[in-house]
Write a structure and sequence with these properties.
By secondary structure, this protein is α/β, with parallel strands linked by helices. The chain is about 35% helix and about 25% strand. It folds into two domains: about 180 residues, FAD/NAD(P)-binding domain (3-Layer(bba) Sandwich); about 130 residues, 3-Layer(bba) Sandwich (FAD/NAD(P)-binding domain). The chain binds flavin-adenine dinucleotide.
Length: about 400
């Protein structure tokens, strides 16, 4: 009987899992990917959508196309829950049976129970969120008779990148003077003592100095405890006006993961072994932001990043293949790679362990990473679909047709 593999989520981890499984498994295996979104998005570039530099569609690939070309079924729907004992996932109008389930449904904003934060914040987790921020901010700053105060909640890489893009956008629209004179203000509020937590001190200080000098106000060591339609209040009691609040501070697993009857870590992330399956159930794998990987009963300290999701996808696919074929599985060991953070179009930080480099080249490098990523996902399936549709011996004839006379 052909094996059925269902993947929940066609983001960075889910798409890579699907394509890797297609390469590894026998052609009789049925691979189905379910995503509530029609498009796969390259999330690490959404800050560029905020400034209007690019549009959402520039960093999105239609999942039906990229999967269809490889003979992987795409179901455009929301997974409501999963019955891990009965081995099926439940969609609003149907049920999908599986032999192996890969969960890769990503993270969502965590508002830490702050009153009204969910109602009045702009989220910053998808290209569509970034487009809304762009449109609303354009409308706000263009109203020249009104003051415009933008609050960014969270000073991690997302908050810092969004601050850099907003600075660019304000300048590009000709409002640099209004930022200097105070009609427009940008404030970054971060609960810890230093922005870019987890980065070397030199990167933290560089980002802080750069943004301060460009006109961003940075408030550290204080949490937002209350949000109103037009203001935020900090735990210090200080209140700031907020024409717009952009929430980048913190993530949590989404409802699907929270409600699954599988082992979780204390924060609700899906617990998996270093083989990337649930310790409770060897038919359920997890990759990407949703997982908390345990080695010898201790969780790995791992930042939730795209390149970890990609590496985990490959290991999960290899282990499903090994399990099916009765071979030994392999353990996941995180690799350390440089992290790139942009501070607008003119400056960026490249950091790995204690090495910190800065310059505009980082921004260009980020763009190359993005282009390479999108091209890989468009060209890999197209090339392999082309290759499998050419009959044996046909390659030579085709090459001869295209070779110079
Ligand atoms: C603003 C921002 C900037 C970032 N910058 C970087 C960076 O520079 N470098 C880096 O390495 N990482 C970066 N990251 C982190 C990186 O984007 C994530 O680590 C990565 O996207 C995780 O991949 P994933 O597959 O786990 O989840 P995602 O890519 O989030 O994909 C999850 C998918 O699941 C789908 N889904 C969710 N629930 C359901 C459901 N119930 N039913 C059906 N479908 C569902 C969603 O539609 C989505 O397509 C950034 C993240 C953000 C938010």
């Amino acid at each position: 009987m052909p094996q059925r593999i269902v993947i929940v989520g066609g983001g960075i981890g889910g798409l890579e899992t699907a394509l890797s499984l297609k390469n590894l498994l026998p052609s009789s295996a049925n691979i189905t990917l379910v995503d509530r979104a029609e498009y796969h998005s390259f999330i690490p570039s959404i800050h560029n959508v905020v400034s209007g530099d690019i549009r959402a569609r520039d960093i999105q690939i239609p999942l039906a196309l990229v999967l269809g070309l490889r003979g992987i079924e795409f179901v455009h729907d929301e997974v409501m829950s999963a019955d891990v004992a009965g081995k099926n996932v439940i969609l609003p109008a149907r049920v999908l049976d599986y032999d192996y389930l890969v969960l890769s449904s990503g993270a969502e904003n965590n508002f830490f129970g702050v009153q009204e934060a969910e109602t009045f914040s702009h989220r910053f987790r998808s290209p569509e969120d970034a487009e809304r921020i762009h449109a609303d901010l354009c409308a706000l700053v263009d109203e020249r008779s009104r003051k415009c105060s933008v609050i960014i909640a969270g000073g991690g890489p997302e908050g810092v990148e969004v601050a850099g893009e907003l600075l660019d956008m304000i300048r590009k629209r000709g409002y640099g003077h209004d930022l200097r004179e105070g009609r427009i203000s940008l404030q970054l509020i971060h609960s810890q003592d230093n922005i870019l937590p987890g980065f070397p001190a030199r990167a933290q200080n560089f980002a802080r100095e750069y943004l301060l000098q460009k006109g961003v106000t940075i408030v550290t060591g204080h949490r937002i405890v209350e949000v109103r339609q037009d203001a935020v209040m900090l735990d210090s009691g200080v209140t700031y006006d907020a024409s717009m609040l952009i929430w980048t501070g913190g993530i949590q697993p989404n409802r699907l993961i929270r409600e699954l009857p599988l082992a979780k870590d204390p924060d609700g992330w899906l617990k998996v072994t270093d083989r990337l399956h649930s310790p409770d159930n060897k038919s359920v794998y997890g990759v990407g932001d949703i997982v908390s990987i345990y080695m010898d009963d201790r969780p790995l300290a791992l930042t939730r990043l795209a390149y970890h999701a990609l590496d985990q996808a490959l290991i999960a696919a290899m282990n499903i293949n090994s399990h099916l074929r009765g071979r030994r599985d392999v353990g996941y060991a995180p690799k350390d790679r440089p992290q790139l953070v942009s501070l607008g179009k003119e400056m960026g930080i490249c950091s790995r362990k204690d090495i910190v480099l800065t310059g505009q080249w980082v921004v260009l490098l980020k763009k190359i990473v993005q282009a390479r990523y999108l091209m890989t996902y468009l060209s890999k399936p197209a090339l392999s679909a082309l290759a499998s549709s050419i009959p044996a011996g046909g390659f030579r004839q085709i090459l001869r047709m295209f070779s110079p006379l």
